[in-house]
Amino acid sequence: IPASEHSTMTSWGRERELDAMRNMLEQYPKGLVACVSDSYDIFKACEEYWGTELKQKIQERDGVLVVRPDSGELPKIVLDVLAKLEGKFGSETTATGHKLLPPCIRVIQGD
């Protein structure tokens, strides 16, 4: 699947990280796309960029954005990222009692 890496995200610079994320969604408007999101501040990325500025674009895409927190203490970082995204996108509870993000957004940890 199309996926960013730290070098492609940081090449835009801290001030243009949102633009880099928007570019990933625009370059890959359909299907799966994975975007490393911890180059500077994973929680800002989840709450302000993915969960606010780009939320509508994510929800309207014909596909799934996979948010990648590639660093941090496991499993805490993954749980924290899931909680931040749930706060912005909501979740449903599965028959087994697990929380599930909406179909437009997922998380993978790749460290």
Describe the overall structure:
It is a single chain. By secondary structure, this protein is α/β, with parallel strands linked by helices. 43% of the residues lie in helices and 19% in strands. The chain is built from 5 helices and 5 strands, in the order ααβααβαβββ. The chain has helices at residues 6-10, 17-27, 42-53, 55-60, 76-89; strands at 30-36, 62-68, 92-93, 99-100, 105-107. The strands form 2 sheets. The chain has a 3-stranded parallel β-sheet. A two-stranded antiparallel sheet has the order 3-4. A hairpin with a 5-residue loop joins β3 (92-93) and β4 (99-100). α3 runs parallel beside α5 (76-89). The longest helix is centred in the last third of the chain and has 14 residues, at 76-89. The chain is globular, with a radius of gyration of 13 Å.
Q: Layout of helices and strands, plus pairs?
A:
Elements lengths: L5 H5 L6 H11 L2 E7 L5 H12 L1 H6 L1 E7 L7 H14 L2 E2 L5 E2 L4 E3 L4
Please compute the radius of gyration using only Cα atoms.
13 Å
Number of strands: 5
Q: What structural category do the secondary elements indicate?
A: alpha/beta
Low-confidence sequence ranges: none
Based on CA inertia axes, which overall geometry fits? Answer: globular
Report the span from N to C terminus.
17 Å
The share of residues in extended strands comes to 15-25%
Q: Characterize the largest beta sheet: strand count, sense, and whether it forms a barrel.
A: 3 strands, parallel
Q: Fraction of residues in helices?
A: 40-55%
| Helix segment tally | 5
Kindly report the spatial arrangement of strands forming the biggest sheet: 1-2-5
What is the succession of H and E elements? HHEHHEHEEE
Average pLDDT figure? 96
